[in-house]
Prior knowledge:
single chain, 431 residues, alpha/beta, elongated
Amino acid sequence: MRKIFIITLLLSGGISSFCLAQEKYTPSKENLENRQWFRDAKFGMFIHWGIYSMLADGEWVLTNKNLNEEEYQKLADGFYPSKFNADEWVRAAKDAGMKYICFTSRHHDGFSMFDTKQSDYNVVKATPFKRDVIKELAEACRKHGLKLFLYYSHIDWHRPDYYPWGRTGRNTGRTPSGTWEDYLKFMDAQLTELLTNYGSIGGIWFDGWWDKPDADWQLERQYALVHRLQPGCLIGNNHHKAPFEGEDFQMFERDLPGQNKAGYSADAEISTLPLESCETMNNTWGYNINDRNFKSTKQLIHTLVGASGNNANLLLNVGPGGDFPEGSVTHLKEIGEWMKTYGETLYGTRAGIVPHQPWGVTTQKDNKLYVHILNLDKTELLLPITGKKVKSIARFKDKTPVKYKKTKEGILLQLEEIPADIDHVIEIVWR
Length: 431
Ligand code: FHN
């Protein structure tokens, strides 16, 4: 019986995936270096952009509004974003202090924002625009020294072989045809294009596994393909669980690691991999004409600082219509200004020895501890740190010395006044 099984496996070509599934993933040297780079980078820009942006109702409009998928495809005929300028987008990210961009190469609607031979349903073949958006972004990122990550949806509301359907996208009038195996091959072929045609890719940001958690996704095989093509490419998967074998970083949607305010992270046990938190600037990912509820610059900076204090990067989203929304542009500029002074207290740091507190967070690098006071309504602050020798304690921005006392409980900071700045940073240098 066993012999028959092995022969069948060999004949069916299943042996390669069988073997891969058995191998434990060992990240390459390059991959480990990129993980280190990622941990140091701290701040990136998420961009959700596709033909859905034209309907100005978020990236889920096809399924949320039960649109007919065949009719939805016609949106591509009108996609001509005359203002698109990859260089400007990348510069806006760079000026905000961001070190990487993660762009939606294909979202759940199944429309590819790059030149792919695997389907004509793509930005070059199906639109009058005819420009390969990813090629332009990749060139601009190279020019400005940012890394390009690619969001890649596991869900597909367009293809008839994404079948059995998942939890979402059911009422769009599709008729199933083809096999699940066809769909897996399609994704492999697209990933191969993405990882061979655009130079070095910082990472692949998978999303949508949760639509069909019981499906045979063959993730280890897919991950092995990515790592074979670009060993340094970091893989993350927004499955909202603890990382699976073969992944290189872990993301938390609209929450800091350990929180579950948004409701996605109940099972997302924090791993030792590099961490990333993704968040919207308003309330939606893809462009939504009604959503002008932008968070304040102060709130966004607090999220960024909070992420660093929890050992995570912040991937902050922009949802362009044809161009970046005004609100995003203003906030990005203001964050960039702030980063010019305070970036040093975040880049290259790790979470500080004092864990997240109601008043703020700490970050640390070499012999320095940065105390980020975000909400404090008094002038005294006790840091529960004992047994360390202080060389100096000063306000970060102008190096004015800060008074302090050493007590049995720790270091008691005595500030001149109640902190009023967005983030009152105190720099402690240890001997
Ligand atoms: O369904 C997607 C959503 O559209 C968006 O892309 C976010 C980004 O984290 N992820 C999914 C929801 O978990």
